[in-house]
Amino acid sequence: DAQTVRDALGELLPTDAKSQQAFTRLAMVPHAGWQFSGQVCGATLARAGLASTIVLLGPNHTGRGKPVAVWDSGVWNLPGGEVRVHELLAAELCASPQFQTDAEAHLGEHSLEVVLPFLRQLVPDVRVVPVAVAESGLEALMQAAEHLAGVIKGFDDPVSIVVSSDMSHYIPADAARERDSAALDRVVALDPQGLYETVRS
Hints:
By secondary structure, the chain is of the alpha/beta class. Helix content is 40%, strand content 18%.
């Protein structure tokens, strides 16, 4: 229901948040139900300086479809509106074998759709490239990342990346902070192999 979504976003998006002056290349937000993680998602995105073109990366929980699956055209319908896919950027990503056009991987998958209403509210003219990631091999992920970086660097318009991820489920807050910090330390150090090994272990 469109009004229910608007009311929820009104509660979850802080009214006093000021976007960063600097352009935000990447933001990571949780994708649990809004009642569990919506405040963190809303606070994070409201403070980000997001571009109007966003590559939206999320895990593939269902196991259906391609390892790195791009929804490459059309619109995603949401209560009260829609979000258009950036078809040119999607095509550039899919010019490499690391990214494959595949809508099936997105069917029944929640990790991206729960973030879209926030993006539409904050960036009304937003266009996205939704990517569902099932790939778990480090080498393949590194190749995909290198291609993504090259496409973004050469693209005419600024592009932000929004990653939808649950760092952990059902563990005490202290344990979650300890585990999250171990992973985020590797992110800040720009150490993808260290991040991969930390998360896998």
